[in-house]
Specification:
Order of helices and strands: HHHHH
Helix content: 55-70%
Distance between the termini: 35 Å
Largest sheet: none
Number of helices: 5
Number of strands: 0
Shape: globular
Radius of gyration: 17 Å
Strand content: under 5%
């Protein structure tokens, strides 16, 4: 993961783009790119894997940039959130169902 973070930083520094990467702009970009990812599945369940991977890469890149911008450790925040989610969705109640935790 550190290689990816370093490459994204280098890419942005070379282009002097960090000035545009406010927290707000990065959050907007995540949403915009997520919508483009969703567009790959808009009309049916078939999709072009290459296009999906490219859009997914865009979403992930902006997520990484936002985490970097706010000095959040990606591994730490994901694992912390997973622990909270495990408590909301205990295996004995959530296994095999898609019910929201408030209705389990």
């Amino acid at each position: 993961m550190q290689k990816v973070i370093d490459e994204i930083r280098k890419f942005n520094e070379e282009r002097d783009w960090d000035q545009f990467h406010t927290e707000e702009n990065l959050a907007k970009s995540i949403s915009i790119e997520a919508a483009e990812l969703l567009e790959c599945f808009q009309w049916n369940s078939s999709y072009n894997r290459t296009e999906v991977c490219e859009e997914l890469a865009d979403v992930l890149s902006y997520c990484i940039m936002l985490a970097d911008r706010i000095d959040a450790d990606i591994e730490e925040i994901v694992l912390d959130k997973l622990e909270k989610t495990k408590k909301k969705y205990p295996v004995d109640k959530a296994r095999g169902v898609s019910t929201k935790y408030t209705k389990l």
